[in-house]
Fold:
Amino acid sequence: MPKTKEEPGIINIGIVGGGVFCREVLEKTTFDYRKNNVNARILTVADPDPESPGIRAATDLGLKTVNDYHALYDPEYGIDLIIHLTPAQDIFEDILKTKPHHIRLLSYPAFNLFWKAIHVGEEKLRARTEEMETILNGIQEFILVITPDREIVEVNDAFLKQMGYTREEVIGRKCHEVFQKVNQPCNDGGTFCPLNKVITNRRPSQQIRTRMDHNGESRYMEVSIYPIWERDGKISKFIEVSRDITDRKREEEEITRRLEQMVEDRTRQLEETHAKLLHQDKMASLGKLSASVVHEINNPIAGILNLIMLIKRIIDEGPVRQNDLDKFSRYLNLMDAETRRISRIVSNLLAFSHQSKMELKYVDLNRLIEKTLFLNSNLLKISSVKVEKRLDPDLPEFMGSEDQLQQVFMNMISNAAETIEATGEGTLTIETEHFYDEGKVIIKFKDTGLGIPRENLSKLFEPFFTTKKKGKGVGLGLSVAYGIIEDHGGSIRVESKVLKGTIFEVELPLKQSSGMLDRQGGSHG
Structure:
């Protein structure tokens, strides 16, 4: 096989001596020189014994064999170098005398020395490789070596053991075939490939990714990719170091789930507590009202009873005349008016005490204030409170909970009555006003009562804070009112001077927020 012009830099080698040494050399040096960037190749082996180990190995490898080393001189073989692999000195001297000048000769002692040196280096490299494999296989993290073509070329035992693979199932396969069980690279399927991130950023990358084990079960992995750079700036390999954090991740997810459940439970408890506070405050207000309206109801009932007794006496005294019938008609009209008055008082009390779900509807705030004042009329009279109303006649209807807003107004009016009663007498002024440009409604409750000390102003809306005597209140009214107005997207402000009086200003937005609308139907009591 002469040298071809297409391979001018290749050195063709012929071996003389087909012993065990020859076989060892052939086994370790015969490879595809084109792929391994080697500019030399063994072409022919010469030995008179066709059964010698070297001849048989050469035959198995598809190399030329001859029984006379002189045949290597023939230009047909294109031999550039003869390696003498037998200790026979006479053969070496004969080759030295008879070979053409262009063929070089490497003696047995020289090659043997060179081969031993290579063997020592190979042993050291093998020992070093074994050390590295032992270290890598002793590491619990997963370690893989991946080529730029996404091919896995090395993997440690930890990966194989924990992911359930054999080495044959991993080595030589694409990483996305092993990790994701897909045929296309990760970035083609909408999942950004961590190797691409390393190439783009030109630095190591750390990510948490999900990968499939041998059984197809999804696992959470903490992945670090380190590039190995060649001299020309290209990446020769990727070293991937990863660890299975599935247990930790699932524990975190379970903790998160428990926290969310705790928040949900706590929110439900707060809503229930809020509903109870509303109810408790309403019952306290109802108790005050019941005490005050009993006189308001007793008076018309006493009048009705007197009229009934008068009618009965007239009937008992003799025949009823026309004049008596006229009296009866007048008495009945009075009884009807008083009965209707009692009915309105009772109806308002029932409506106020009724526990209902929060229902949003358009509320006439002026009418609601009038209704609340009527319900508190006797309390205001007993407390010597004069009421002045400055209600905006063009006040727009407001979207909110009529039941809860009445509870706010009830607190404002009863508080004003109590503080004015302590001074002997006074005035409660109620104002309503709207601001279309600012999209809001203002309701003010001004009293001329005792006022509130400055140090107490910041505590007014705290639950259970009260300056009232024992039995007069538990300190829920203003905190509940604050919560109701805040739920409606509004706010309450207070100004007060001791012995001068107090102003509570309620501001409500004309347009409710989506959060307020979402709460419609929720149980607030």
